[in-house]
Amino acid sequence: MSKKSAQSNRERAAAALREQQRQEARRRNLMVGGVVGVLVVAVVAGFLWMRANDSSGDIAAPAAGSEFGLTIGPEGAPREVIVYEDFHCVHCADLESRTRDDLTAAAEAGDVRVEYRPIAFLTQYSVRAANAFKVVLDESGPDIAKTYHDLLFENYDEASGSEDGLDDDTLVSLAGEAGADEDAVRDGIEQVTSQGWVDDATKAAEDAGVQGTPSVLLDGEPVSGSSEDIANSLAKAVG
């Protein structure tokens, strides 16, 4: 073999080695990037899960009648319940289905004053749904807003399919089903005109010590446990 051929072979071998090293480095980088990506997703998912489940700790919430809620039942009722909730929270939807009838009946009987305080802890849909609720409350009054509130939770299963939740047309349609004038609320829902109220309501909840949803207070004291536990405690208190 000539010196020229031997040198050419060495150059090809060196080039092949460099290419192999480059490919191995690329695979290592992709592997590290994939692991980091999985960890980031896990951390974010864990944070959202904690926000949706951790309602422990002291809460210094203002009494019913705040600017960030919808109240049912008479002022001066012997018991008071405050519910911090997120329309995209599965546990909030569960609690709502378990407590709605009991709390509504007790409020109508004058035995309890209940204030629902929608906040946005989880997703952009949390913001959009709370905004839609506020738009309906302002345009149509508390009775229709309460019906709308209930319908939003009744449609939680559909909303839970993605972070986007229900689309604007569905939010408007549900408002009409609740008794609102769809034309009167459409712009506010589509343009998210009450996002400032949602942001302020959420900040007020955080400042009061709310760490997750649902967070429920009975006569100013937090009610802990699962949705079923909370529902049972409220039923005993107001039943």
UniProtKB/TrEMBL annotation:
Residues 1-20, 208-239 are annotated as: Disordered. Residues 69-227 form the Thioredoxin-like fold domain. InterPro entries: Thioredoxin-like_fold, Thioredoxin-like_sf. Keywords: Disulfide bond, Isomerase, Membrane, Oxidoreductase, Redox-active center, Signal, Transmembrane, Transmembrane helix. The chain crosses the membrane at residues 30-50. GO terms for molecular function: isomerase activity; oxidoreductase activity. Belongs to the thioredoxin family. DsbA subfamily. PANTHER family: DISULFIDE BOND FORMATION PROTEIN D, GLUTATHIONE S-TRANSFERASE KAPPA. This is Protein-disulfide isomerase. It comes from Nocardioides lianchengensis.
